[in-house]
Design brief:
With 242 residues, the chain is of the alpha/beta class. The protein contains 8 helices and 8 strands. GO terms for molecular function: hydrolase activity.
């Protein structure tokens, strides 16, 4: 497994917003978005698996300290930052997180750099739904939603919300109807994404593939990693980006 020091660090700016990025690999592009509390060693390990499969991976650093292991206090501080930042919409209904525009621009820039039919976008937990919102950009053709948890499911309405404004919702449905599939991953008894998966099935139909693992764990690709979930993501990226 690599460390964050083994990745090429840079920054990307769009519409006046700048975040650092970490890049490694060759081949078609994939944007891997970290979960709470940040780019932990487990997130890096998953990104390594994507690189080893033959992809160029870019990890944006949206919050947290890259490479820092997860702790309870570190996670709490990241949750607080995510809730108060104007870039994210942790509780808002029917609203697209502003940071997804920056992420879509990053995906478009990556596509221009590596070529190919398009790029993949893998979101996890806090960023899980961001991969769906990134479909507003034509460069994104392989969205992966790993346990999408925003808006936080503190009410039934929020548990079913996809984190999209009405206009973006329409745009995403149009892209899916035109042939773009969506992959979702979750544990069967994880309440963070239960209602959201029901909505995804109903609205996306056969274009939505759900990989649901037994149990009440949460992080399908990192802390509670399951090989079935990782293989599903890698195969999906292969099918869409090769």
């Amino acid at each position: 497994m690599t460390t964050i020091a083994d990745w090429n660090r840079s920054t990307f700016t769009h519409a006046g917003i700048e975040h650092e990025t970490f890049r490694r690999g060759t081949g078609p592009g994939v944007v891997v978005m970290h979960e709470l509390p940040g780019i932990t060693p487990e997130v890096i390990a998953f990104a390594d698996e994507v690189v080893d499969r033959g992809f160029t991976v870019v990890m944006p650093n949206l919050f947290g300290d890259p490479g820092r292991p997860m702790t309870a206090g570190y996670t709490v501080r990241s949750v607080v930052r995510g809730c108060v930042s104007k870039e994210f919409t942790a509780l808002a209904l029917r609203r697209t997180a502003p940071v997804t525009r920056w992420l879509a621009a990053l995906a478009s820039d990556l596509h221009a750099s590596v070529g190919g039919p398009g790029v993949g976008a893998v979101g996890m937990c806090f960023t899980g739904g961001f991969a769906l919102a990134m479909l507003v950009d034509d460069a994104v053709i392989a969205p992966v939603l790993a346990q999408p948890s925003l808006p936080f499911p503190v009410t039934p309405a929020r548990s079913r919300d996809l984190g999209l404004s009405p206009a973006d919702h329409t745009r995403v449905l149009d892209r899916v109807a035109a042939g773009c599939p969506v992959l979702g991953l979750r544990y069967e008894d994880d309440p963070a994404s239960d209602g959201r998966f029901e909505v995804l099935r109903r609205e996306l139909g056969e274009r939505f593939t759900a990989v649901e693992l037994p149990g009440r764990k949460h992080s399908t690709l990192t802390l509670h990693r399951q090989q079935r979930a990782v293989d599903a993501v890698l195969d999906f990226l292969d099918e869409r980006l090769r």
